[in-house]
Design goal:
Elements (H helix, E strand, L loop, with lengths): L6 E3 L4 H11 L4 E4 L5 H6 L7 E4 L9 E4 L2 E5 L15 H10 L5 H6 L2 H7 L5 H9 L2 E6 L2 E6 H4 E3 L2 E2 L6 E8 L5 E8 L9 E8 L20 E4 L10 E4 L16 E5 L6 E7 L2 E5 L3 E3 L4 E6 L2 E7 L1 H12 L8 E7 L13 H5 L5 E6 L17 E6 L3 E4 L2 E5 L2 E2 L7
Parallel strand pairs: 1-3, 2-3, 13-24
Antiparallel strand pairs: 4-5, 5-10, 6-7, 6-10, 8-9, 11-12, 13-16, 14-15, 15-21, 16-19, 17-18, 17-23, 19-20, 21-22, 22-23, 24-25, 25-26
Helix pairs in contact: 5-6
Length: 413
């Protein structure tokens, strides 16, 4: 069979492509990039678009570059562009390992990464990669640009969150830190056939970092200060949470030496910067000891900027992955008070790390239903516990910790 009659359009700029799509999408206009999925179903007349908008002449859509901690993949980037690793890093090696499973070589020369995502075939390898890494997908229309997380983009087999008048211009995959291990497996009856099953897993490994504490003197000093103007709890000013369990003693300073003290900042009251250089516990998600510094900027109770290296990008992407602004709101802030505590033998001992003397505890996200029946009203989707050594902590302009040392009366070790 041959395709049903259609009108062919070949824009040379993104503005022209978007304009045509806005005009022709209501008339069943479709975008053509590689055509390796669309053209076969047109040939069987399973799809009968009245208009085809060919974007292969649109400048700039063939860009493949690393920028802002992510690999940016334009709408015209072909499968074959990943035959060789796009970089000497875990992500480049992962894509090179996956691409050899896609169909046959002639198809890989024409088919595109973004086209595969837009088609959303459950047997498509790139869809699995995007979903696993929670890629950020950029859709453009006459109304503007929209960024969609992969978990929200895929709605089912052959179904996505793209509106008919939107063009998927770019996919952004997060760069994976050194130490990442991955595995990909696929089962099909013959090489090049559609996959009957496939799986991709990526694991970020921090190897025995707790054996050397501190690892780098430059990472154990938080140069900036975090200031909390007002504290509000469901009962009184202070909430004490012991390592041994949830025991609440509001205002009792004398019995804090074996645990930690947490305070719930009043909404919009946290301002300043702090350097996270101890641990990150992202629940659910990653748990690791920091090998580099991550700087958080707070403004009016909310984290407005996350700066640093690969670990900062992990934190930033994890917070954004929930598509919930409340994840960036300060949950509780506190400090460890156990002068005898040292780095725990296992990295996921949250209470052990947080109780270390002079450790500042920074939490983001949910604070509803915390131990002891005291908590806040932030019902965010998840919770992050971050720790730092060597920081400054001020409450109502009263210094509590200076450079990791308690200066508040009654709290000195």
């Amino acid at each position: 069979m041959k395709p049903a009659p259609f009108a062919y359009h070949r824009p040379i700029s993104l503005d022209d492509a978007v304009r045509l799509l806005a005009e022709l999408a209501p008339q069943d206009g479709r975008v053509l990039a590689g055509g390796q999925s669309l053209v076969p179903i047109m040939a069987f007349r399973l799809a009968r678009p009245a208009h085809l908008i060919d974007i292969n002449a649109v400048a700039g859509l063939d860009r493949l570059a690393v920028r802002d901690g992510a690999l940016h993949i334009g709408a015209r980037v072909r499968h074959a562009d990943f035959h060789r690793p796009v970089g000497e890093d875990p992500l480049g090696r992962m894509l090179a390992a996956v691409v050899r499973h896609i169909a046959h070589y002639p198809i890989r020369l024409r088919g595109t990464f973004c086209g595969s995502l837009a088609h959303a075939d459950p047997a498509a390898e790139w869809c699995v990669v995007a979903a696993t890494l929670d890629a950020e997908l950029v859709a453009v229309s006459a109304a503007g640009e929209r960024r969609i997380g992969a978990r929200d983009f895929f709605r089912g087999a052959m179904e996505t969150a793209l509106a008919p008048e939107e063009l998927l211009t770019e996919a952004r995959l997060p760069m994976l830190p050194d130490g990442t291990r991955f595995g990909f497996a696929e089962f099909s009856r013959r090489a090049g056939d559609y996959a009957l099953a496939m799986a991709l897993a990526a694991l970020i490994i921090v190897a025995a970092a707790w054996m050397a504490w501190p690892r780098d003197p430059g990472l154990t000093t938080a140069a900036a200060a975090l200031s909390v103007d007002e504290i509000e709890t469901a009962r009184e000013r202070w909430v004490v949470v012991y390592v041994s369990g949830a025991v609440v003693h509001p205002g009792d300073w004398d019995s804090l030496t074996l645990g930690m003290c947490n305070v719930f900042p009043k909404e919009d009251s946290v301002n300043g910067q702090i350097v996270v250089n101890g641990t990150m516990f992202l629940i659910p998600g990653h748990q690791f000891i920091c090998n580099e510094a991550t700087t958080l900027t707070y403004k009016d109770g909310r984290v407005t900027k996350v700066e640093g290296g690969s670990e900062a990008r992990i934190l930033d992407r994890w917070l954004r992955s929930f598509h919930d602004d409340k994840m960036f709101v300060s949950s509780h802030i506190g400090f460890g008070l156990d002068a005898r505590a040292g780095p725990p033998p296992i990295p996921n001992d949250i209470a052990g790390w947080e109780s270390m003397n002079g450790n500042t505890i920074l939490a983001l996200g949910s604070n509803v239903g915390l131990p002891g029946g005291i908590g806040g009203v932030n019902d965010a989707k998840a919770h992050a516990d971050l720790t730092t050594l060597g920081g400054d902590f001020l409450l109502d302009d009263q210094p509590i910790i200076r450079a990791g040392e308690f200066v508040y009366p009654g709290l000195q070790a």
